[in-house]
C-alpha cells in the first residue's frame, strides 16, 4: 500500500521526474523556462509524488493539456449562453419596469386613494353616529306610535260614520227642501200668507246650518286621514331603521 502527496508548481512541464528533490526543482525550473518561451505548450501544474509500502519515494507525473475545443469554449462561449444572458437582461429590465410601476402605484394609493377613503370613512362614521342618535331618540317613542295610529284609525272610522249619517241627513233635508219649495210655489200661486214665508226661511237656515256642519266634518275627516297617513309613513321609516340596525327582527 502506498501513500501519495500532491504538490502544485506554477507553469510546470516535464516528462521524466525522479524522486530527488534537486532533480524536481531543476525540472520545475526547466519546465517554467520552457513554458515561458512557448506559452502554447503550458502543461498542468499538478505533480504527484507517491511512496511504496517501504517508504521509498518515486515520482508519477500526470500530464494534461486543454484541447482547442475546451479553450475555445472558455474564450468563446456557445451561442445559447449569449441567448440565455440576453434573456436574463430582458427579464431584469422588465422587473425594473414592474418595480417602478408598482412604486408609482403605491405612491398614488398613499397620496390620493387612501386619503379619499379616509375622508369617506370619516363622513360615513359621522352619518352613522347621527343616525344612531336619532335612533336612540326615537326608540322610546316607536312603541307609542302604533297605539296612536290605531286610535286615529278608530277616530277616522267614527268620523266616516258621522259623515255617512250627515250625508243621509243632507239627502233627507234636500228632499224636504224640494217639497217645501214646491209647496211655496203652489202657495204663491194660491196666495199664501206671511206664516208660510217665515217657515221657509227657517227651513233654509236649517239647511245651511246642516250643510256647514257637513263640510266641517268632512274637513276634519280629511285632516285626520292625512295625519294618520303621515304617522304611518314615519312608523314604517322607524321600523326600517330599527331593522337595519338589528334592534327588531325583520
From TrEMBL:
Ranges of compositional bias, category Polar residues: 50-59
Does the record carry Coiled coil as a key word? yes
Composition skew (Low complexity), residue ranges: 60-73
Q: Which residues form a coiled coil?
A: 114-190
Q: Does the keyword Coiled coil apply?
A: yes
- Protein origin, superkingdom: Eukaryota
Print the keywords alphabetically. Answer: Coiled coil
Q: Where is this region: Disordered?
A: 50-83
Query: What is the protein name stated in its UniProt record?
Result: Uncharacterized protein
Amino acid at each position: 500500500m502506498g501513500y501519495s502527496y500532491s504538490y502544485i508548481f506554477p507553469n510546470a512541464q516535464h516528462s521524466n521526474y525522479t524522486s530527488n528533490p534537486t532533480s524536481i526543482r531543476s525540472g520545475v525550473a526547466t519546465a517554467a523556462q520552457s513554458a515561458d518561451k512557448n506559452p502554447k505548450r503550458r502543461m498542468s501544474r499538478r505533480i504527484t509524488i507517491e511512496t511504496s509500502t517501504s517508504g521509498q519515494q518515486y515520482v508519477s507525473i500526470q500530464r494534461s493539456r486543454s484541447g482547442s475545443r475546451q479553450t475555445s469554449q472558455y474564450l468563446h462561449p456557445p451561442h445559447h449562453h449569449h441567448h440565455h444572458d440576453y434573456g436574463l437582461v430582458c427579464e431584469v429590465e422588465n422587473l425594473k419596469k414592474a418595480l417602478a410601476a408598482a412604486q408609482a402605484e403605491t405612491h398614488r394609493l398613499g397620496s390620493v386613494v387612501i386619503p379619499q377613503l379616509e375622508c369617506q370613512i370619516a363622513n360615513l362614521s359621522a352619518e352613522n353616529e347621527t343616525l344612531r342618535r336619532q335612533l336612540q331618540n326615537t326608540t322610546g317613542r316607536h312603541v307609542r306610535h302604533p297605539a296612536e295610529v290605531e286610535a286615529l284609525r278608530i277616530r277616522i272610522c267614527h268620523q266616516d260614520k258621522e259623515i255617512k249619517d250627515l250625508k243621509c241627513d243632507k239627502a233627507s233635508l234636500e228632499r224636504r227642501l224640494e217639497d217645501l219649495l214646491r209647496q211655496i210655489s203652489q202657495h204663491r200661486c194660491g196666495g199664501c200668507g206671511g206664516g208660510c214665508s217665515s217657515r221657509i226661511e227657517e227651513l233654509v237656515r236649517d239647511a245651511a246650518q246642516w250643510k256647514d256642519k257637513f263640510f266641517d266634518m268632512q274637513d276634519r275627516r280629511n285632516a285626520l286621514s292625512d295625519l294618520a297617513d303621515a304617522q304611518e309613513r314615519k312608523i314604517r321609516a322607524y321600523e326600517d331603521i330599527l331593522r337595519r340596525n338589528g334592534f327588531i327582527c325583520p
